[in-house]
Amino acid sequence: MVSTAEKYGWAVVFALLVTFAIPWFLWGDSRMALGLPVWLWWHIGWMVLASVAFWTFANRAWGIGITDTDGTTTGDRA
Hints:
Mean pLDDT: 81
Helix content: 40-55%
Radius of gyration: 18 Å
Largest sheet: 2 strands, antiparallel
Distance between the termini: 22 Å
């Protein structure tokens, strides 16, 4: 079971992932790096970061908001 602080922490992580998924601060920027636009490198890096975050969430805190306080899932009730 995860703590209340960790639940809020995951909410902040996912809010940040959504907020910065679109590099609005790079719109109209034509800089290139290693033959690709900088905004494309941002997207590639952000997808790697999001993948690590989702993998960590799935292994550590899967079930937040789904399980009851006794540890059973809502589908386990008779």
